[in-house]
Amino acid sequence: MTTSFSQDQISEWAYFSGDHNKVHFDEAIAKKNGLSGVIVQGMLVLQDAKNALTQYIGGPSRMKFYLKEPVYRDKEIVYLISRKNDEHHLKVHDIDGCCCITGRASPEKGETNIVQAKHNIAIDRPFLEKQIQLYQALYPQVGYSWMIMDALLFSVCFKYQNGDPFYAKAQKITLEPDKSKVVTFQVDQDILITEDILTYDCADLDDLTFYYEDQDVLKEDYSVYSLLNYQIYRRDKLLYQASMGSITRAFEAQNRAINKR
């Protein structure tokens, strides 16, 4: 499958998710942050990858993705899927042959070790209903409940908790008040798809509990790698779980420090 992402598509994802990072909109700011131009949100690029891999899922499964290089606006990319034993592997590369994303889907074998995230977040039902309806209106081609919940949980970070959670990360590595001078890249995602969510109807929001946990894993002078773990439980049973890794970097502050040496 070959595709590209326009500015309108980038804006649609921002409208749904609340992720308005300026590197997705302003070329000058993107270049100040070490990029070649405006880049597409990682979760938007992964949406087609998840949709393609889900057709090979027949039961509880894991998906893992690694975002190696940014995908640029209007640049064609190719999604390739291959099979190795009981795993399906994905590779996304651009028309220049640069590998942007790798991933795989595999059956979840044996007993799953589940650690409940630390923080229970109460989310208003009207917000959930509105977000699900908005997602289905913008992305009618996505019919898998786990993907809808995956997108919903991501949007909660920005739209329901009122702010950019990744800018808070930047405050740990620089006191720079200008948000355009810090940038966050999604670099991975680890997903557990349960048996229950494969048959779950997203219109049924009864008895759901949402958990989030934010972890700083590796902090350097001008960057921090962090994990955002989120889970949904239904009647005290895990329905869906994902962990998203990201790097927040203060590019200009780092360059200033290097130039002073």
TrEMBL record:
Superkingdom of source: Bacteria
UniProt xrefs under SUPFAM superfamilies: Thioesterase/thiol ester dehydrase-isomerase
Domain (MaoC-like) ranges: 5-81
Gene3D superfamilies: Hotdog Thioesterase (3.10.129.10)
One of the Pfam families matching this protein, by short name: MaoC_dehydratas
UniProt-recorded name of the protein: MaoC-like domain-containing protein
Annotated organism of origin: Mixta intestinalis
